[in-house]
Amino acid sequence: MKKILILITAVIIASCSDNLESLNENIKDPSSVPGETLFTGAQKNLVDQMVDLNVNNNNTKLWAQYLQETTYTDESNYDQVTRTIPATHWSVLYKDVLKDLDEASKIITDTKYSLPEDIETKANKLQVIEILTIYAYSVLVETFGNVPYTEALDIEDLLPAYDDGETVYKALIGRLTTAIDALDTSKGSFGAADNIYGGDVSLWKKFAASLKLRMGILLSDVDNAFAKTTVESAVASGVFTSRADNANFTYLSAAPNTNPVHANLVLSGRADFVAAATIVDMMNTLNDPRRPLFFEKTTITIGTITSTTTAGTTTTLNFEDPIDAPIEIGDEAFNGSVSLGTISGISVSSIDIENISETPEVDNAISFSGYKGGTIGSTSSFSTHSHVSDYVEAAATPGVIFDYAEVEFLLAEAAARTFAVGGTAKSHYDIAVVESIESWGGSNADAMTYLAQPTVDYDTALAASTATTPWKEVIGNQKWIALFNRGIEAWTSIRLLDFPILATPAEPVSGFPNRYTYPIIEQTLNGSNWQAASTAIGGDLPETKLFWDLN
């Protein structure tokens, strides 16, 4: 059994050393650890892996171009081998999540509960474990392709065969349907041991239906008929309908139970990440009200003054070169550390300031406070680029693995594919955009103003798109913004919809990573099965597209 189980068991035994009967206990027997404890640990391990940004564990926030590295840029340039990231992802999901969930299920199944509340929640506990198991396997398939499934989790079988990814995925959807039907919403489940829903079975049922929706959408290009049936069935089962349904894992303000983002950005004392230019530039172009909710402003140079003119209360500062900084009306201008006032006008090579606090001299360098992202794949100074907001890096910020905004975007995709989900692509898109803004703390007024812009309005943006499938661009771009800080989900959406168009890194070691490569240890220890799987998917390469990624 894994070391963590041995250690936990050892602590339990040691605390009862005055009980002579405990000397006869087998401290390696996992049954001495309550199944509920294993469930809690597996749940945390799963969410930690999904939300992490440590370059040893999860590179997808870099690949989705939400963040950029400041100094060591290997991972931004698609290197997934040096730090053996695929091996970590594989190990966490199989060993620390799936195996623990499997053990939890066995223990709870075998436990003879005496309390009435435990007896009546037993069946629901097993179904919640089943749902999280399906979720973890779905991530593995979406990440690697063919993976061990039918022969996985058997500690006696160290050389498991790999199953076909599409076959596994469809089997998981079948299991999900069974779990949804088996949940009894009149009874509870894990209670306080569940750090996502507090044991609320009705919310777990909505989560399972929403997961089924997501998985169905992913199959749309490879098996449209199956996808349509899956999606429509999921909606009929009851997907998320409000923010209250969000799957948010509760983190605490003290280590070791803080959000992993906080551990990597704050507790580490390091300055390894800044905002990426790709997302900042798009949000600047769209005047996105989520910018201050995602990122902090930084000081950005406008240029050197050649002359100034004043007319009434307006002072014009003229620059020697055309302005290429992302200035906006309302930004604050600075001469060194002195605030000159608010920018009221912008032209090719000048800005206007009303009631300027002081008139700068010729050759003074003028700056403003705004949002700037690091160039993809290049070193990016921590001091001159935007950082994530205080909320994003806070210790107790919840770990989100599914939310209502994503469900509405999925429904928009479904409607665009003519699936019968109620509403139109536009109606679901509008709800999704507004929900994303409001859930991050923006106002409804901000959301409606944003949505009314021609570049955001669904119908106008659709008509202006030159993409082969315009709705993929319109929905894909906004869904990507809404999935900020959820790298794995965003990476999957990018691969499915092919939007947004990402920047090519400065020094890429491969093409865009369409998958994690298999762990090197699999090549060494499970070589024949690894070779068969590699051949089946078209080669164990980062560029290999998975079965669902056809376009």
From TrEMBL:
Coiled-coil region(s): none
InterPro entries xrefs: SusD-like_2 (IPR041662), TPR-like_helical_dom_sf (IPR011990)
Top-level taxonomic group: Bacteria
PROSITE patterns the record matches: PROKAR_LIPOPROTEIN
Protein name: Starch-binding protein
Organism from which the protein derives: Aquimarina atlantica
